[in-house]
Amino acid sequence: MCTGGAYSFPCLDHPTCAQYCAAMKIVLFLARNISTTVVAAACDAVAGYPQRLVQRIGHPVMWVGHLIGGLDRRLNRDTDCDRVRYRNGFVAMSVIATLPCAAVALAQVLASRRLPPPVAIIAGGLLASSLSAQRSLWEHVRAVSIAARQGLPQARVAVSHIVGRDPAQLDEAAVMRAAVETLAENFSDGVVAPLLWMSLGGPAGAVFYKSVNTADSMIGHRTPRHECFGFAAARLDDLVNLPASRLSAAWILLAAMTMPDMDARAAWRIVRRDAGHHRSPNAGWPEAAMAGALGVRLSGPRSYNGVVSHEPWVGDGRADLTPRDLDRALALYRRACMVQGGVLVALSVMLRRAWRAHRTS
């Protein structure tokens, strides 16, 4: 007789029992991945990725960037027709999405076989913490808030490090909006998404996501050179970011519910109304949640290289943001990160308890 919690089966050869045991293996796999994610998130929040390491060995995103740049030079030739560029773009993305991920997955398997589980989890979390941008995003956006109090020229310089639009055309309100929008969007694709994929696939899952996201940043542009070659990168990035963008809006909503100066109901209303109107299929979700919670308007018209893009507004509030609004956005971001961390810890505990119950039954 094989027992499994509330179920009892005649033997392990019984199909239902085999399915239950397979499900428990998945539970253990997810429990270890989420524990690794908790370690990674904690390390990133406390220390981030040391600048000395960047100077000495670079950053994992930079390593992937070298691979992407090499494929771009070799497979995206100016003499190729559009059809060939489309095809080569899919070939390049196949390599980018699988090669780094496969290398890390192999390292995961070897570590799990040779190291005790707690040691493997801690080591994996320490190494994978470089794939989350939680602390880096906080520092870069906070630098805009600090610079804004020194003057508009300093604020423009600070915001130029995190946005692609022309800072010379931005007044103080536009600088603050740009910083809040960057904070919201990068909370999704720089924090929530890598941790989500890490929870599902361990460090290899996070590497898969960061490889796709980096490819989109480098070649997923609608420029003459990359419109065809980068098509696969842009579409795949939209796909892998889809769950995280919705989840990031949920974290912001939950965080707003715990803060007296935030409007969680307005955040929910703005998400339902405006998230789908954004120029991006994913960025609109965290931006709408942030705009509603803060009671401000985001997005709207902006200038890129002298060309004005007439984007719809997100939110109902005022558009003349101040440094105080940016500080409130940073506080909401920090609380949303805490909410996410709390959920990850709770999931890890629940899954491990389920596994222990299975082992002792």
Automatic annotation (TrEMBL):
Keywords assigned: Cell membrane, Cobalamin biosynthesis, Membrane, Transmembrane, Transmembrane helix
InterPro entries the record matches: Cobalamin_biosynth_CobD/CbiB
Chief subcellular location: membrane
Pfam families, per database record: CobD_Cbib
Pathway it works in: Cofactor biosynthesis; adenosylcobalamin biosynthesis
Membrane topology annotation: Multi-pass membrane protein
Localization terms from the record: Cell membrane
Domain of life: Bacteria
GO CC terms, sorted: plasma membrane
GO MF, one annotated term: ABC-type vitamin B12 transporter activity
Transmembrane segments: 90-111
One GO term of the biological process aspect: cobalamin biosynthetic process
Record function comment: Converts cobyric acid to cobinamide by the addition of aminopropanol on the F carboxylic group.
Family classification: Belongs to the CobD/CbiB family.
PANTHER family: COBALAMIN BIOSYNTHESIS PROTEIN CBIB
Protein name: Cobalamin biosynthesis protein CobD
Organism from which the protein derives: Novacetimonas maltaceti
